[in-house]
Design brief:
It is a single chain. The relative contact order is 0.16. By secondary structure, the protein is mainly α. α2 runs parallel beside α8, α5 packs antiparallel against α6 and α7 runs antiparallel to α8. It has a single domain, classed as Rhopdopsin 7-helix transmembrane proteins (Up-down Bundle). Bound molecules: zinc ion. Zinc ion binds next to α3 and α8.
């Protein structure tokens, strides 16, 4: 059994009820994102892929907070990383409109940095692995604002939500003696909000015409 979180006191499928239930936020984010894109004809497989990954994040995280095993941990980690990589790929290619090679360099750098930070799970209660994604979202927020995209401050709001969610993820074990449920569930809920905001930033700036490629 892997016991990373304050709420878990022992083995058992229902040992983290609030952590598990708060994954509902990801399914709501997937549903809200789907409503956002379903009538936009210029959005192709990209919308399905990202919404599918959000649902997978919810399933993977629910399994991890229920089974708390190594295989479930991988199901928790991999969909989040895939969502980050696919989102950054589509955002840079479609909204900032960099070319394929520059976009690939940024996505590979994000993947490499995420892999490197994974070697230090003891730092910041394991939150260090999200530092590369946080750096990317800050950069995209600045570009989004100065390029006067639709909803120009949306990614700034997303960055603030991400900072807050990382804070609650990091202090989970430290506050355990004061609050027995910990604060990891707030990481889930705020990340549901974060995911919806970044999806909105991407798809309200999506090119009106589908480019054949
Ligand atoms: Zn979690």
């Amino acid at each position: 059994m892997i016991d990373l979180y304050c709420e878990r006191l022992g083995p058992g499928l229902l040992a983290e009820p609030i952590n598990a239930a708060s994954n509902l936020a990801f399914f709501i984010a997937a549903w809200k994102s789907w409503l956002l894109i379903k009538d936009r004809e210029s959005i192709g497989y990209e919308g399905f892929l990202l919404v599918g990954l959000i649902i997978t994040i919810g399933i993977g995280s629910t399994l991890f907070h229920s089974y708390a095993t190594n295989w479930a941990k991988q199901l928790d980690i991999i969909p989040i990383l895939l969502f980050q990589l696919c989102f950054v790929w589509f955002y840079i290619l479609k909204v900032i409109e960099l070319n394929y090679s520059k976009t690939a360099i940024i996505v590979i750098a994000l993947f490499t940095a995420s892999h490197l930070t994974r070697q230090f799970p003891h730092l910041l209660n394991g939150s260090l692995i999200y530092a590369p994604a946080f750096c990317v979202i800050i950069t995209l927020a600045i570009v989004h604002y100065y390029q006067k995209k639709n909803n120009p401050t949306l990614l700034i709001s997303a960055t603030a939500i991400f900072a807050l969610s990382l804070f609650f993820r990091t202090i989970d074990n430290a506050i355990c003696s004061y609050l027995t449920i910990g604060s990891h569930f707030l990481w889930h809920i705020l990340n549901g909000v974060l995911i919806y905001l970044v999806m909105k930033a991407l798809f309200t700036n999506w090119p009106a015409q589908r480019h054949l490629s």
